[in-house]
Every structure is written in C-alpha cells, then in structure tokens.
Design goal:
Length: 246
C-alpha cells in the first residue's frame, strides 16, 4: 500500500498542450484497460489549450479553484468537489483560477480505434478572462457590508487577525469584548449567532458580530476554514474572548 498526502508531484506538462506551468501525475494506470485517470495540477493562471476528447472526459476537482469553458458557452468557475462531464467531441478547455491553483482528476475513456484527444489553439488571455481584455476593468469594488455599530463606538483601534480552524474543529460558544467583523478566505464553516439561524460561510462571505454577541457556532467543515477577523478596540484595550460554557 502506498499513501500519498496532498497533491501528487507529477511531471511537467508538455508546453504544446498547456499555457503556463502545469503538472500531470498518473493516478490509475490500467495498461490495456479502456480508461485513463490523471491528476492534473495547474498553477494560478495556467490552463489547457482548446481540445476535445473522442469519448468525452470527466473532471473531478480535488483542490483549489479553476475555470472551464465549452466552445460557445460562458467561462464557468469550478471548485474542489465539483465534477465536470465533457461530452464526446466537445471542444473545451480547463485550468486554474487567475489567483489560485487547481488540481483535478481527469478521467478519460480511450477508444480502441486509435483516435485520441485533439489539440486546438491556446486559450487567449481574453478568452480566459471571459471577454476581451480591454473589457476587464483593472479594479472592481463592491460593498459587502455597511454596518452601523450598536452600541455606537468611537473606534480608536482595529486589530486584524488571520484565524484558522482545523478541519471539523469547533470554536465553541464564545463572546468577544468588542464588535468583530470578518471575511472568509478559504474553506468553510457553519456559523451561528445564538438565537439566529445557522449559515455556512464560504470564501468571500463576510460577517458582523455585535459587541457582546454570543457566538454559538463557528465550526470548520471538512476543509477547515481560514478567515480575517477585524477586532474593534479602544486605545488601551486588548482583544479578549470568553467561553461561557467552559
Ligand atoms: Mn479536457
């Protein structure tokens, strides 16, 4: 038995098939059998060329976030856990997100008649970004939260912490001494302020905990969770956390 933890290493992918750095690691080698399974690891921004498979392909994203597009369709975002079914003969490409790596299993039936995957043109930056480059604004801004503080507070200080909760670990019922804002970076967590509905927070989600709020749940899911917490404090005040149940 061999156990491999984390991404498989793999060999550098051939440059005629990829733009940017990518690696291919064999996962199942079936000899004369009719299905190939590869783990393909893409650095941020890298992707395959346009191509098609005679009998189609199934992609299972095992890590990170990426993009996939079929000819004539929109650029779609894919994440760890997603599965993509590509139809036989359908032109498409797949790769990492611009700012995140992506690893997927590529499961591909191999026909007996000797036909194989056909490569086309590289995916241009403009295609990769889902439009013409000049249409992509250099900076985008969106208001995620516009929050009045109750009770009001003359903010002297904000402490920003990066906090990671290991997979399936729970913070437990807790109370902070001031208001806390946060935003999820990676992973996911079941989150609940006591007396309110539970919700799953995912990357990009933001939250606000009023001063003195009792946080009933901040339970990391299977992938753990990392978030930035912004702790509003007075000039000489330390960020404190109480666990009423302990
Ligand atoms: Mn493919």
């Amino acid at each position: 038995m061999q156990i491999s933890q984390g991404p498989l290493g793999g060999a550098a992918a051939p440059s005629e098939w990829f733009t940017g750095d990518a690696w291919i690691a064999p996962v199942v080698e079936t000899g004369r059998a009719r299905t190939e399974v590869d783990s393909v690891r893409f650095a941020p921004g890298s992707r395959t060329v346009w191509h098609r498979h005679p009998l189609g392909q199934v992609l299972v994203v095992t890590e990170g976030a990426g993009r996939v597009q079929r000819r004539g369709g929109p650029v779609e975002t894919i994440r760890a856990g997603d599965t993509v079914h590509v139809a036989p003969g359908e032109w498409h490409w797949h790769g990492a997100a611009p700012d995140r790596p992506m690893t997927h299993l590529a499961i591909e039936p191999v026909p007996d008649d000797g036909t194989s995957t056909e490569a086309g043109e590289p995916v241009a930056d403009s295609e990769y970004h889902g439009g013409r480059v000049e249409d992509v604004p250099p900076v985008t801004r969106s208001v995620l939260l516009d929050q009045m503080l109750s009770p009001p507070r003359g903010t002297h200080r904000v402490e920003v912490r990066r906090i990671t909760i290991a997979p399936r670990q729970a913070a437990g019922l807790h109370v902070h001494n001031g208001p806390v804002f946060g935003g999820i970076e990676t992973g996911s967590a079941v989150y609940q302020i006591e007396g309110e509905a539970a919700a799953v927070l995912r990357p990009g989600d933001v939250f606000y905990e009023p001063e003195g709020a009792r946080i009933a749940r901040f339970d990391a899911e299977a992938d753990g969770v990392t978030f930035l917490g912004y702790f509003l404090l007075d000039a000489g005040e330390a960020a404190e956390i109480e666990f009423p149940g302990r």
